[in-house]
Amino acid sequence: MLAVVGLIVVGKVAVDTSVAFLSAVRIFLLSKLRSLSNFKERYGPWAIVTGATDGIGKEYARELARLGVNIILMSRSIDKLTKVAQEIEAEFHVETQVVQVDFSGGRSIFDKIAEAIRGKEIGMLVNNVGVMYEMPMELCELSQDVIWQHVNINMGSLTMMCWLVLPQMLQRRRGAIVNLSSSSSVGPLPYMNIYSASKIYVDYFSRALSHEVRNSGVTVQTLIPFYIATNLTKFSDFIGRQSVLVPNAQTFVRSALSTLGICDRTTGYWSHELQLFSCNVVPTWFWIRFGGMMQQFLRRDALKKRK
């Protein structure tokens, strides 16, 4: 009996590994073989990128502009928005529009956003804006402001932005929405509990929305990246420096953008896909325990860096 059980377990692991490998080859090999030259015609002339002044958001804005798409940049700092818009217009010769908005403001900000994008044919929405702890912390160390930022920015803004732009996409039967989740959504993550919970919301919401709009001509993609060398990870040298496992924002975005239309749920980057597979084969109790240890290590690294 034990031998039979062992064979079943080994067989399941072998099948899962084979499926994951073939899936990764399909996603990342096919994405390199196709051209994105018709991107504007396929999705539409304008793209909205939230959190567009740094990191992943800025690189999405630049890469979409490189494809000839006009960009609506949304973020909190008008100085940074203006600078990025000017850089994009000068380099890629597309139109830009800036919308200064603090996504922690809750419901009241979306009337302003709706008015700002009125009359624009939005072909793509990149819901990138997000917040994360300044370093791993226990719940009681967090301020109320940080807690509500995770609710309003990581969950509320993403949902409302989809609600604002999706009707026109469905009417035209073309468009794409990219929602940034995180590897922290793989399982409960101690010392990043609110952040982790907000990102599983993004994952579940996006997957359900993708099913709702199937066969409509609109694509909804969930990205589940692991660590990327951006301002959000600079608190630790361990995860804030570029490496094979930690790409910079430009490398990640170019890879992730090429998977749009090929896969509706992906990490966006080949080494992150391997990390996701490894995480999915371990039991939840191991993920929680190992994840907690990892976050404690990153906390110590952050505190050391502050000295």
TrEMBL record:
Subcellular location, principal: mitochondrion
Annotated Gene Ontology cellular component terms: endoplasmic reticulum; mitochondrion
Membrane-spanning residues: 6-29
Protein location: Mitochondrion
Keywords: Membrane, Mitochondrion, NADP, Oxidoreductase, Transmembrane, Transmembrane helix
CDD domains: 17beta-HSD1_like_SDR_c
One GO MF term: oxidoreductase activity
Family membership noted in the UniProt record: Belongs to the short-chain dehydrogenases/reductases (SDR) family. 17-beta-HSD 3 subfamily.
Alphabetized InterPro entries for the sequence: 17-beta-HSD3-like, NAD(P)-bd_dom_sf, Sc_DH/Rdtase_CS, SDR_fam
Species of provenance: Daphnia pulex (Water flea)
Name of the protein described by the UniProt record: Inactive hydroxysteroid dehydrogenase-like protein 1
